[in-house]
Amino acid sequence: xxxxxxxxxxxxxxxxxxxxxxxxxxxxxxxxxxxxxxxxxxxxxxxxxxxxxxxxxxxxxxxxxxxxxxxxxxxxxxxxxxxxxxxxxxxxxxxxxxxxxxxxxxxxxxxxxxxxxxxxxxxxxxxxxxxxxxxxxxxxxxxxxxxxxxxxxxxxxxxxxxxxxxxxxxxxxxxxxxxxxxxxxxxxxxxxxxxxxxxxxxxxxxxxxxxxxxxxxxxxxxxxxxxxxxxxxxxxxxxxxxxxxxxxxxxxxxxxxxxxxxxxxxxxxxxxxxxxxxxxxxxxxxxxxxxxxxxxxxxxxxxxxxxxxxxxxxxxxxxxxxxxxxxxx
Length: 329
Fold this sequence. Notes:
Elements: H1 3-16, H2 21-31, H3 35-58, H4 62-77, H5 91-110, E1 114-118, E2 126-129, E3 135-138, E4 143-147, E5 155-160, E6 163-166, E7 180-183, E8 188-191, E9 195-201, E10 204-211, E11 214-217, E12 222-225, E13 229-234, E14 237-242, H6 250-253, E15 255-261, H7 263-274, E16 277-280, E17 291-296, H8 300-311, E18 313-318, E19 321-326
Parallel strand pairs: 5-7, 16-19
Antiparallel strand pairs: 1-4, 2-3, 3-6, 4-5, 6-9, 7-8, 8-11, 9-10, 10-13, 11-12, 13-14, 15-17, 18-19
Helix pairs in contact: 1-2, 1-5, 3-4, 3-5
């Protein structure tokens, strides 16, 4: 196998969720080597997803193959940003290789029964034990969809809404750690064994890592998070920051641990945790305020009441909007 074939094989294994820990590290190193590599990866990923959606048509209708091959051959010469790619293989060859990826995705849905767990908005938080002994805490109004047997298929979870994950480490038949992937509307989140929070607010999505290492992908970007890191998807861009990760577990535990927390952090916390819009009147009045300490609040209303004296502010919720206004003039 030449270097070009090895590179494409590595990309495909990563896309399929079958890359080992060493292969994942090798892939990420390759990805960071140049902007061209990132663009190439997202083009192949897009092709894989296209084929996975059209797999039933591909075998019956060669025109599907022809259209996809033509598209990627056309884009191979010059990217829309003007970046010329090394030839490697032609995209037609990549598409042929991706047959394996398409069939892989199809098998994921056929090889095992899939289970859906939904939590209604008027219910309480629900804890779910997955087949590999990973645990998920689902917020009301959220749901997950996952295979009943992780031995037969990859560890892939579909999430709608908010969840806190504690992922168990699992080895494959070769002794390598198996990846665990969560797919949301706009992100793909991959880990090997860790705990982290996934929250969605309208078109914004946030991931906060408590332990371990998490890889987050959007349609155009990829980033790696470590404990205390947060990434927010806003206006289709991944925005990283450093946060107090334990604070974002408050919706699950009822314990909110502040550590020099600013008003902007509180705003983002409220928006992601309670799926609301937060407006701050006279924000300059809060610029020097930092909160430290721990409060216990089991409900949104309790939390807002406790914040009032801590911020010296009035906090009013009307429909889906929370307004924070300073008491002082």
